[in-house]
Structure formats: structure tokens, C-alpha cells
Write a structure and sequence with these properties.
Elements (H helix, E strand, L loop, with lengths): L3 E2 L8 E6 L4 H10 L8 E8 L2 E8 L2 H10 L6 E7 L14 E2 L5 E9 L2 H10 L11 H13 L9 H9 L4 E9 L2 E10 L4 E5 L2 E5 L11 E4 L5 E5 L2 E5 L5 E2 L6 E2 L15 H7 L1 H9 L19 H5 L3 E6 L1 H18 L3 E5 H4 L10 E7 L5 H12 L3 E6 L5 H4 L3 E4 L12 H21 L4 H12 L1 H9 L2 H11 L4 E6 L3 H16 L2 E6 L16 E6 L5 H13 L3 E7 L11 E5 L7 H19 L10 E2 L6
Parallel strand pairs: 17-18, 17-19, 19-20, 20-21, 22-23, 22-24, 24-25, 25-26
Antiparallel strand pairs: 1-27, 2-5, 2-11, 3-4, 3-5, 6-7, 7-8, 8-9, 9-13, 10-11, 10-12, 12-16, 13-14, 14-15
Helix pairs in contact: 4-5, 7-13, 7-15, 9-13, 9-17, 13-14, 15-19, 16-19, 17-19
């Protein structure tokens, strides 16, 4: 997904858990480092050695936690780790995870939000429980304690698993949980509801994590937990239970991750964001791979798993997404309507799910999410299904929640995207939308064989064109060095250039904290033109096309008011140099594919301005990679 702000009450964090034959602390610390991209303000780990629990928690970054562990190591071959972003309670050591119960024998880490935590907390206080934090998470540990230790609610409960199951029945909200107890030091419990959690398996070593990169160096064999499932990890193996309490055969659920561990590392780049910008030629190539017939005349989408005769009857498409994925959907609207002549509506997933949308038999929904765990997009999918509609998802993560709940999926094959600000996920989403537009055009008969072959040929040249675009990086750096001190910026575009302007502005504000807005260029005279002066750089998408003359007129409007213009122009366009202050050239390609190339210099511009302003582009403040709750 694209990024989105964390609202009060959300707990978007990183979880890592381990049980096996190795030193747990080292594995947990390494896993937390690989989850830093999710954003956090405190961190902690806990281990059990014999029946002794050791916990180290800090306010601040993982480097500080690592220093604490060097000075006072902790031991054990089972443990839990967590990175927290403050929601309930300020960043502090007391509010950092892991949390414990009154007896200090139950340890818990949690992602999500417990909606009825205040009510539960008051009840637990009346029963004598003492709370040490302001978090909603801590009440879960105390609730488990009620069933596990005291015997007041349910006597002689010496089974952590049973106590957890009973406690979960009292909880309302979303959660991914890792739980262990010094009374049962050979058992780690994992469960989820509405917040992602995975299990990793490797030769007697077992892991839980909120995201694949945390455990990728140890294993590629992954189980994605479904809502309501509960897993018991022991050194002898893993037991997985469904929502109905029945044992599930693991063999059917294990997924083999194709990512190379090096794909989740920086490979010499100073930041993941820059690495991922440069990975776009390869990512686009992988997205195209296997989807074009050998003769280059047809599109193959076997994974669609939807009958072509039913697709022929589709007369309306709804695209739903959030953030950067929503911008991709806006471009997809232009592509599908122009190429396949099917009416398309693009809906922000958070709004779509609450407005009682009209879904008919001839409607198809397309859900777009990088992570596959975006809560609002999942809610939109469920809304479509409730109204008996069908959903195709465009996603990067195999086996994710969006994928599992959709009728069909087209994977982007972008590989792991670690940087919070989405780059290669966006361009591969656009690649898939272009492929879908051609596919629908063939089905609907709006493209003849010759037209389709030409569009496919253009697509096959796209990775090479992307490489050419990246060669303009030095020019981008020069412009970044000139403009990084500015506090505001406007991005303008027409047609498909407008969503690209939105995405360019989003990237700049995300990573450099410069206020930036994207507008349709024709809207300038309806208000934003009042902002134009020498201190307001205006970035204009001025690629060759049917609206080129109109965009030149918009540039004239800005310059006439003393504005500074940076233009994105088609390679070879010398005319525009006379009209603007700076030019970034984009390799010439077909008009439908031009947004993919045009966004790359805007990604680079945002990155280099952020670096010049001494911002960390991989971990923008207040943002997280996946927004897994509302």
C-alpha cells in the first residue's frame, strides 16, 4: 500500500518471536532491526531461561537497546521482541512492550487496538490487578492471568493455551499476539484477528513475526495466520488450530517465499528508498514476465481465475485503495476507460466501505494494496462481497489477507519493499493496471489484434525505458540542491499527469516534510494561483500529448506571476526550455505508459531533497508501512 498517517488508537508495530535451539536474544534483536522500516519510538525483548524471565525495554531506537543488551546480556532459547509506536500512552520504557501480568510470569507483545480495554481495565482493577503502563496491551496479560493463575474465575487452569482462549473471548478489537509464560517455558503462542502475523519454520527452530523480512534470513517457509487461528510453537513442532478449534494440517498452509534475503538488504545503497527506486526496471520486468504470449500478441492472466464470458459482461469497474495505491487506481481509471471502454470509478477504500455503495451483477471491483493487509481496503472487499460482488486484487504479498479474501489476484512481483514511502510497488501496480486494460480491451473487442500487439510491444520496452530514466539522476540531484530549502511546492498535471502530480506531491511531503499539493493544471485559476510567487516552486508534468499546448499555457500563467517552474518534459523537447527554469527529461514512450516513467524523477527528487534536509527517507515521522487498523 501507499503510506497513511497513524491515527490515535492505532498500534502499528513490529513483532518477532522465537523458540528453538539458538540464543533467542540475538535472533530477536536482528528481527527487530529488520522491522525498523515500520516506524517505532520504543523497543524491547524478553527471554525465558529455565523459569526465569528477563526483559529489556527502552525508549528510543534499537541501537540503544542493543547497547543495553551488550552491557547486560539476557539468555534463553525462547523469547519475544517488539517495536512500538506510541498510541495509548506516551513513548516510555513503561509503555514499551513486552508487557507482563501481576505475577510477572506471563509475557505478551501486541499489534492492533483493544477497543474495550478501558472497560476491561476497570473490572481488572476492581479484582486487585495493578497496572504499570498506560497501554491497552497490558490488560491482555492481566486477563490471561485471571484464567491462568488465580483460579478465581476458572479454578486449576494450568494450561496457558486454555487461558489464552478464554481471555480472547473477552476482547473486542484487532490484535496480533505473541504470548509466553515462565510456567510453561517450552511454549510460544501466536494468534491474530485483523492484524497480520506469520509463522516461520526451519529445522526445529520456529518463529513468529508481523512481516516476512524479520525472519527471512532464517527461513523461507512461512504460514500466514488467518483471523481467529491460534498456533502453539514448541521445540517439537507447531500445532495450528482454526477458529473452530480444530487442528489444521500444516503441509497445506506452508508457503515458500521466493525473495532472496539480499533483496531485503540495502546492497550498498544509503537508504532502502533509493535502492527500491533503482530496482524498478527489474521489478517491472518481473511483473511483465510470463504474462505475454511468445509471439507478443496476447496477454496471459491465468491467475485471474474468472471466467472470460463473465468478464465480457462487466460494464462497470470500481477501483478501491488507499494512499499511493489510490493514486495508481486513478491512473488505472484513465487506462481502462481509454483502452477497454469500461466505465471506472475510483474510491478511497475508507470512504467506500461506509457509504452503502451500489454493486450490481455487471460490476467488478479491483482492490489495490502493496502489503495486502490494509484494513480499509480489506473492509471495502468485504463490503463488495456482502453485496454479492466480485473482487480482483492487485497485491505484492503472497498469501496476505487481501489476497485470501479476493476472488482472484494479480501479483505485482515487486519483491520486498522496505522503505515506508512506496516506489516500486506503485510502478508495478501501474504495470498491472496497463496489462489489465489491454486484457479487458481484447475481451471487450475494443482492441483489434494489431493494436494489442503494438501496446504489448510498448510494454516490453518499458524496463529499458525505466533504466534510461534513472540515468537522469544527476540532473535530479542538481535540482534538489537548488530547491531543498523551500517550504512549499505545487505539482500540476493534466489527464493521467494529474494523479502523477498527486503522487509526486505525496512523496515530497512524506519524506522531506515539505508542504506539497498536487492539482489538475486547469484548477490553477480557480484558487491555487493565488499562492504563486518566487518562493513556491511549481513542478509541471508537460509531456507530449493531446494536452501539451494547454499545459504550456498553464506554465505561462505561473511564469507571468513570478513563479518558478520545474518541468517534466519528453526527451528531445527543446521548446520548453525557453519557458521554464528547470527541465527533467523523460524518455519517450506511448502515452498510456508515460505515468510510469514520469513518476520516477519525482521519486528521486523527493528522496534527494529529504537527504539534503537531513531527514530519514526510510522512516518518515508519524508514518508506518502498513496501516493494519482503521
Amino acid at each position: 500500500m501507499g503510506t497513511a498517517p497513524i491515527f490515535p488508537g492505532e498500534n502499528v508495530c513490529g513483532i518477532i518471536g522465537y523458540i528453538g535451539n539458538e540464543d533467542a536474544a540475538e535472533i530477536l534483536l536482528d528481527g527487530l532491526k529488520r522491522l525498523e522500516y515500520r516506524g517505532y519510538d520504543s523497543a524491547g525483548i524478553a527471554t525465558i531461561d529455565g523459569e526465569h524471565i528477563s526483559i529489556k525495554r527502552i525508549k528510543g531506537n534499537i541501537a540503544l537497546l542493543e547497547k543495553v543488551l551488550e552491557e547486560k546480556p539476557i539468555y534463553g532459547k525462547i523469547g519475544l521482541g517488539h517495536t512500538r509506536w506510541a498510541t495509548h500512552g506516551q513513548p516510555s520504557e513503561e509503555n514499551a512492550h513486552p508487557h507482563r501480568d501481576c505475577t510477572g510470569t506471563i509475557v505478551i507483545v501486541h499489534n492492533g487496538i483493544i477497543e474495550n480495554y478501558l472497560l476491561l481495565k476497570e473490572k481488572l482493577k476492581k479484582r486487585g490487578h495493578r497496572f504499570k503502563s498506560e497501554t491497552d496491551t497490558e490488560i491482555i496479560a492481566h486477563l490471561i492471568e485471571e484464567y491462568y493463575h488465580s483460579g478465581v474465575v476458572h479454578r486449576s487452569c494450568d494450561d496457558l493455551e486454555k487461558a489464552v482462549r478464554r481471555a480472547l473471548k473477552k476482547i473486542e478489537g484487532s490484535y496480533a499476539l505473541g504470548i509466553m509464560s515462565s510456567r510453561e517455558p517450552d511454549k510460544l503462542i501466536a494468534t491474530r484477528n485483523g492484524s497480520p502475523l506469520i509463522i516461520g519454520l526451519k529445522d526445529g527452530n520456529y518463529f513468529i513475526a508481523s512481516d516476512v523480512p524479520a525472519i527471512l534470513r532464517h527461513t523461507k517457509d512461512i504460514i500466514y495466520l488467518e483471523d481467529g487461528e491460534l498456533a502453539i510453537l514448541a521445540r517439537t513442532g507447531v500445532r495450528l488450530y482454526g477458529q473452530n478449534g480444530k487442528l489444521i494440517r500444516l503441509e497445506r498452509r506452508i508457503k515458500r517465499i521466493s525473495w532472496d534475503v539480499n533483496m531485503a538488504e540495502k546492497e550498498g545503497y544509503p537508504h532502502f528508498m533509493l535502492k527500491e527506486i533503482h530496482e524498478q526496471p527489474r521489478a517491472i520486468e518481473d511483473t511483465i514476465l510470463g504474462r505475454i504470449s511468445p509471439d507478443g500478441a496476447d496477454i496471459h492472466l491465468e491467475e485471474m481465475a474468472l471466467n472470460k464470458n463473465k468478464l465480457k459482461k462487466i460494464n462497470r469497474i470500481i477501483i478501491t485503495a488507499c494512499g499511493t495505491s489510490w493514486h495508481a487506481g486513478l491512473i488505472g481509471e484513465y487506462l481502462i476507460e481509454e483502452i477497454a471502454r469500461i466505465p471506472v470509478e475510483v474510491e478511497n477504500a475508507a470512504e467506500f466501505r461506509y457509504r452503502n455503495p451500489i454493486i450490481t451483477d455487471d460490476t467488478l471491483a479491483i482492490a489495490i494494496s502493496q502489503s495486502g493487509e490494509t484494513a480499509d481496503t480489506l473492509g471495502a472487499i468485504r463490503e463488495v462481497h456482502q453485496k454479492k460482488g466480485r473482487v480482483i486484487s492487485i497485491c505484492n504479498v503472497v498469501g496476505s489477507s487481501v489476497v485470501r479474501e479476493s476472488d482472484a489476484v494479480i501479483y505485482t512481483h515487486a519483491g520486498p519493499e522496505i522503505g515506508v514511502a512506496s516506489t516500486k510497488a506503485f510502478t508495478t501496480q501501474l504495470t498491472v493496471l496497463y496489462i489489465l486494460a489491454v486484457y479487458f480491451g481484447k475481451i471487450k473487442g475494443t482492441l483489434n489484434a494489431e493494436q494489442a500487439k503494438k501496446m504489448i510491444a510498448d510494454l516490453r520496452r518499458l524496463p529499458q525505458k525505466t533504466e534510461e530514466m534513472l540515468k537522469q539522476e544527476k540532473e535530479v540531484i542538481k535540482i534538489a540542491n537548488k530547491f531543498y530549502r523551500h517550504r512549499n511546492a505545487i505539482y500540476l498535471g493534466r489527464g493521467k499527469g494529474y494523479p502523477v502530480a498527486l503522487e509526486g506531491a505525496l512523496k515530497l511531503k512524506e519524506v522531506s516534510y515539505i508542504h506539497a499539493e498536487g492539482y489538475p493544471a486547469a484548477e490553477m485559476k480557480h484558487g491555487p494561483i493565488a499562492l504563486i510567487d518566487k518562493n513556491m516552486p511549481v513542478i509541471v508534468l508537460a509531456l507530449k500529448g493531446s494536452r501539451y499546448d494547454k499545459i504550456l499555457a498553464n506554465i505561462e500563467e505561473v511564469k507571468a506571476r513570478g513563479g518558478v517552474v520545474i518541468a517534466l518534459a519528453t526527451m528531445g523537447d527543446r521548446k520548453i526550455k525557453e519557458k521554464v527554469d528547470e527541465v527533467l527529461y523523460v524518455p519517450e514512450t506511448s502515452i498510456p505508459l508515460s505515468p510510469i516513467l514520469a513518476v520516477i524523477p519525482l521519486q528521486l527528487l523527493a528522496y534527494y531533497i529529504a537527504v539534503k534536509r537531513k531527514c530519514n527517507p526510510d522512516q518518515p515521522r508519524h508514518l508506518a508501512k502498513s496501516v493494519t487498523v482503521e
